[in-house]
């Protein structure tokens, strides 16, 4: 399909720069067989059914944005995928000033050597020293806010809290699974009381999720791989939900992509551990999920293509037109949609 088919006009003022407070006070646009309904996230227990299961991504965002110097050149690096105990693949700003073998000095006496430049312009960074890289990043890095927020305001101490979900446990993401930012312990208790289950899996979200689609046709776009894991016990419980008539509802596109990577043509979810570069566009047959809760995504993005595959492109264009006209807040810190196809 043409990438232009997934374009739409979004007024800049619709981009949220801070999350709702409290988190579950965010608005939620429900799209299902009944049409479109304007609700609030905290109303989820009365919208979903007993026996349904919400699936969360328990990845934890690391301070993956680094500012440093190579000689007299300023170098900005955003880590996006671990390649070894001390090696991370990174997108580099001012990459024309960097060569394989150059040493970059970051803050806090943290240094890394650039290596293995890839065709997409990224470098591998080999961090010097014996301290775990996670400790080095805590000393020298900052929270990697999405570019559409970082370009409009500086990252601050509040983002260290705001940009982590309540489920964050497994360190390794450089972007938050933002649909789960809307959940609070109080909401989870109400969901449990309503008979709505939840499970967690791990997908370490990479910075590639923010890369624009430069191809003119979706067939020509190459997805960046991300590492994920679903253990056998979780897979068994998710399969049991569906066998018993419940719905598996992914909270966030990251959870959905991993479930679909683990599901076979027989619609059975199996244990999974490794990289996935699954790219879901209209025409895809969903095998493991029955619905999706997600934020509102960028025009022409792979994530808008994914929700269009789930609900239909024409339907999602109507959903987004309703959201824009209704002053919903967009992107990572914005409001939510609950998408339940027939």
């Amino acid at each position: 399909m043409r990438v232009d088919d997934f374009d739409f006009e979004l007024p800049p003022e619709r981009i949220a720069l801070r999350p709702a407070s409290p988190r579950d006070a965010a608005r939620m646009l429900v799209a299902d067989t009944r049409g479109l309904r304007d609700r609030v996230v905290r109303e989820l227990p009365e919208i979903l059914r007993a026996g349904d299961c919400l699936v969360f991504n328990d990845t934890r965002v690391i301070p993956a944005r680094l500012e440093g110097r190579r000689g007299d050149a300023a170098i900005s690096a955003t880590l996006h995928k671990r390649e070894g105990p001390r090696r991370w693949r990174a997108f580099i700003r001012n990459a024309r000033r960097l060569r394989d073998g150059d040493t970059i000095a970051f803050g806090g006496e943290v240094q890394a050597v650039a290596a293995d430049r890839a065709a997409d312009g990224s470098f591998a960074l080999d961090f010097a020293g014996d301290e775990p890289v996670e400790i080095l990043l805590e000393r020298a890095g900052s929270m990697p806010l999405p570019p559409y927020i970082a370009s409009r305001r500086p990252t601050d101490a509040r983002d260290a809290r705001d940009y982590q979900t309540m489920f964050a446990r497994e360190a390794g993401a450089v972007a938050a699974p933002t649909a789960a930012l809307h959940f609070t312990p109080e909401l989870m208790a109400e969901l449990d009381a309503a008979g709505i289950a939840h499970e967690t899996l791990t997908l370490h979200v990479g910075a590639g999720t923010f890369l624009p689609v430069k191809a003119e046709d979706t067939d020509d776009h190459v997805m960046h791989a991300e590492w994920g894991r679903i253990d056998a016990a979780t897979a068994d419980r998710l399969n049991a939900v569906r066998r018993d008539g419940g719905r598996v509802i992914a909270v966030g596109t990251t959870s959905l992509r991993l479930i679909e990577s683990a599901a076979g043509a027989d619609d059975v979810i199996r244990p999974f551990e490794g990289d996935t570069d699954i790219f879901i566009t209209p025409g895809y047959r969903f095998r493991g999920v029955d619905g999706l809760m997600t934020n509102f995504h960028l025009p022409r993005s792979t994530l808008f293509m994914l929700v269009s595959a789930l609900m239909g492109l024409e339907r999602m264009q109507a959903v987004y037109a309703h959201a824009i006209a209704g002053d919903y807040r967009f992107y990572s810190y914005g409001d939510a949609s609950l998408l339940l196809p027939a």
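The mean pLDDT is 95. The two ends are 23 Å apart (CA to CA).
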